[in-house]
Structures are given as structure tokens and as C-alpha cells.
Amino acid sequence: MSGESFNEKVNKIVNRITIFVVCFFGIGVVYGLVDKDTRSEIVQDYYDSNPEKAAQKKYEETKHEGNAMDEEEFKSLCKNVSGSDSYRNLIRNSDSLKGTKVCADLKIENTNLGETAMGMSFSGNMVVGITCSNPSMNIWLGDRFAFNDERRAGPKLLVGDVVRVYGYFSGTEVFTTTGGGNVEAPVLDIRYIDFYSQ
Fold first, then answer.
1. Can you give the pTM of this predicted structure?
2. Model confidence at 137: pLDDT above 80
3. 123 pLDDT above the threshold of 70
4. What is the CATH number of domain 71-197?
5. What angle do CA 65, 67, 69 make, to 5 degrees?
6. pLDDT at 72
């Protein structure tokens, strides 16, 4: 025998349950006593000390806000990031620009899982395009974008399509090149696409 009586075992269990209940309700009371402004300050301090979490929160809020817009309003708010300066700025300041509404003129280089394009092997549901400075004249800058096609409907994208994509900048990802190196590329979550040529 362990030396403990049945009553002693029951008392231990009751004591543990009591401690749990007191702690649980104590936290609730303390939370209720802290005013809303103090809770907001605590949450803000959390996001100030975690920039990646803050960027993700901003991105989610921006996407939610964009869901209430019609297509033309959304497109009118998108900043064109096809130029090299804008492209470099997206990579350099990815945390602060996450959630920005953007558009880019692209030539589609791949559309399938695991397909290779521009010397890069992509996985997942990513599509890759290279930027163009003048779609009608076939002038390509060569900057690479990867994107998630989040359209609810519309024509299927094919390799060689020249399009303007509209959506949200969702950050950057590092992709492995077919030569074994790594390249960082901006990733867009696309809501609308206009076709220049199909």
C-alpha cells in the first residue's frame, strides 16, 4: 500500500480542482478589472515587439477591407509595381508593405505545380510571371513575381499570356533556382486579371 488513505487521495484531488478553479476565475476577474485602453496598450505592445505579427495583422485587415470593394474601386487603388524601383522596394520593405494593393504587368512563364520557369522551380500553387515595361511592345524587364491566383472566376491562365494582375502584396519568398541557388521574389495574392493578349 502506498500509505495514503482513500480520504487523503480524494482531498488531494479536491485541492487540485480548487486551485484550478480559483486560478481560472482569478484570471477572468483580473481581465475584467483591466480597462479596455489598458488591454489595447498590451495588445499594441505585443505587435510593436513582433513586427512580423503586426505585418500579418495589417495584411489580414487590409484583405478584409478589400473584400467589401467592387472590382473597379479595388483596381483604382492598386499601385503599379512593374518598374524595377518599385520591385526592389517591395523586396527591401516587405514587412511594412505587406497588404498593399498592387498591380503588375506580367508575361506568364509557368502555371503548373512544380513547373520550371525563368530558371526557378516553384512548388505549391504558385504562378510566376516576369515584369514588362510596355506590354504592347514586348519589352521585358525580367523581374520575377510569384502569385497565388485567388480569383473566384475568369479565364484560365496559360504560359505566354500577357496580363495585368491586381491584388495584395503578401510578402516575399525564397525560391530555389534550377542551378541550386536561391532567389527572393515578391508574392502577390491576385484578385483580378486583365488580359492584354491570350
1. 0.62
2. no
3. no
4. 2.40.50
5. 85
6. 93
Instruction: For the chain, give every domain's residue range.
Output: 71-197
β-pair type (101-110, 162-177): antiparallel
Q: How confident is the model at residue 117 (pLDDT cuts 50, 70, 90)?
A: very low
Minimum mean pLDDT range among 51-55, 80-84, 127-131: 127-131
3-state secondary structure string, 60-82?
Answer: HHHHHHHCCCCHHHHHHCCEECC
Q: Which residue has the cell 500553387?
A: 125
Closest by Cα among 94, 44, 100 to 74: 100
Using the CB atoms, write b or e for 35-47: b if 16+ within 10 Å: eeeeeeeeeeeee
Please say whether the dihedral angle defined by the alpha carbons of residues 146, 151, 154 and 156, taken in this order, is positive or negative.
positive
With 60 as the cut, is the pLDDT of residue 188 above it?
yes
Please list the alpha-helical segments (H only) found in the chain: 6-33, 36-49, 51-66, 71-76, 84-92, 94-97
Cα(198)–Cα(185) distance, rounded to whole angstroms?
25
Cell numbers at 179, concatenated:
542551378
